Amino acid sequence: MSPVTHPAELLDCLQTNLALLADRLHGPGTSLRLGAPLRLRTRTGDHGLPTVEPTLDQHTADACTLLGLAVAEHRTAGPAAFGTGRPVYVVADAFHLPWVPYFGQKHIEHSFVAEATDGGVTISDAYHNETPWGPARPLTRAYRADELAAILEGVPGGFEIIEFAPAPLGPAPDPAVGFGPRDAEDYVRAYAGHPDRAAALDRFTLETWLLARSRRLHAAFLEARDGGVSTAVHQHLATWNALVEHAYLAFRRVSRGHAEPPGLLMRAAALLRADVTLFARPAGEGDVRDAVRATVAAVLDVPAPRLETEPLTAIPSFGSFRMVEIVERLEKDFAVEFDAGDLVPEKLHSLDSLCALVTGALAGTGEGDRRGA
């Protein structure tokens, strides 16, 4: 199996070998589908900080949803056996894997693909990255079966082996931005307010690396789908790459007892907000109305068609608290922030007025803009 997958330099160490399998099963470029969603999906990580680093389960779910892979078997215990007839996806601590730069240096989850051959096992690893201990590049390497089994069975934290079967690929996914400005603010605020600056910046260095790669992957997906992306997108990606360098510099200085360089987290927040502006898919008038109606119906717990025939004030569940919830939900769903001058009762009491509010915010022509505010 060739270790090269088209966007290897855009993928993390767990994604890249799922992409390798998908490109082999469904053809080169399939792996770009991983770039369709643009996310700021967080969970709580070390030191109580939010992290965008996906779990193995999340990566596996993406592979099944986007890449035409289906889990045939998932083993977290037992012998390291590779004679199944299909290549298998393996995850283990890179500290114990002799072909990666992290070997003997850093404990981090890493993946590779193993395939039984006559008299042995061939591993393929598509990971592409620069590390403090040298470059990681796509490679293949042959091992005796017992030799690779001994490596894996000697990993203190164990290993996981997933056998994937091909599944129908389905139509190409639509691009989607899955977060809004407030999500970005909450995420960055957690790092800005953390008392252990060295720990926060250490973690944020990895966060910016993951975020920058995923933005480049999303742009690559759009470029393949649409035949190109704008100059503004290319400039935006270059700024993300510069932020990765800024984060690493900040961490190195603070870890040596120097003052934290200013501006890092403000730049990160601005870039995340710009993600939404640059990449959010424009919605047509019909799409906006359907989405607004669905949101309002969910908040008020009423059938959506009812909103077409009655003002919101005629619905018993509508009131000031629900009105505020509707505004906040719409801002999050459409990744916009309404102008303060537009948030007056007469613009919040009907489906038509709410649709106009959202459409104006998407176009950047809220009432406050028209007044020159």
Account of the 3D structure:
With 373 residues, the chain is an alpha+beta fold. The protein has three domains: 8-166; 176-279; 285-370, Orthogonal Bundle (Non-ribosomal Peptide Synthetase Peptidyl Carrier Protein, Chain A). Helix content is 44%, strand content 15%. It contains eleven helices and twelve strands. It has helices at residues 15-26, 56-66, 145-153, 181-192, 197-226, 231-255, 264-279, 285-300, 320-334, 351-363, 367-370, and strands at residues 37-38, 43-44, 50-51, 69-75, 88-93, 109-117, 120-125, 129-131, 134-136, 139-143, 159-166, 176-177. A six-stranded antiparallel beta sheet has the order 4-11-5-6-7-10, sandwiched between helices. The chain has a two-stranded parallel sheet with strand order 1-12. Strand 2 (43-44) and strand 3 (50-51) form a beta hairpin. Helix 8 (285-300) crosses helix 10 (351-363). It is globular. Mean pLDDT is 89; it is low at 365-373.
Key descriptive features of the protein:
two-stranded parallel ribbon; alpha+beta; Non-ribosomal Peptide Synthetase Peptidyl Carrier Protein, Chain A; disordered C terminus; 11 helices; 3 domains; 373 residues
Helices and strands, with pairings:
Blueprint (H helix, E strand, L loop, with lengths): L14 H12 L10 E2 L4 E2 L5 E2 L4 H11 L2 E7 L12 E6 L15 E9 L2 E6 L3 E3 L2 E3 L2 E5 L1 H9 L5 E8 L9 E2 L3 H12 L4 H30 L4 H25 L8 H16 L5 H16 L19 H15 L16 H13 L3 H4 L3
Parallel strand pairs: 1-12
Antiparallel strand pairs: 2-3, 4-11, 5-6, 5-11, 6-7, 7-10, 8-9
Helix pairs in contact: 4-7, 5-6, 6-7, 8-9, 8-10
Uncertain ranges: 365-373
The end-to-end span amounts to 60 Å
- Structural category is alpha+beta
Mean pLDDT metric: 89
- Strand % is 5-15%
Helices and strands, in order, run as HEEEHEEEEEEEHEEHHHHHHHH
Name the assembly state.
Answer: single chain
**Fraction of residues in H or I helices:** 40-55%
Number of domains: 3
Question: What is the 3D form?
Answer: globular
**Number of H/I helices:** 11
Radius of gyration: 24 Å
Sheet with the most strands: spatial strand order: 4-11-5-6-7-10
How many strands in all? 12
Sheet with most strands: 6 strands, antiparallel
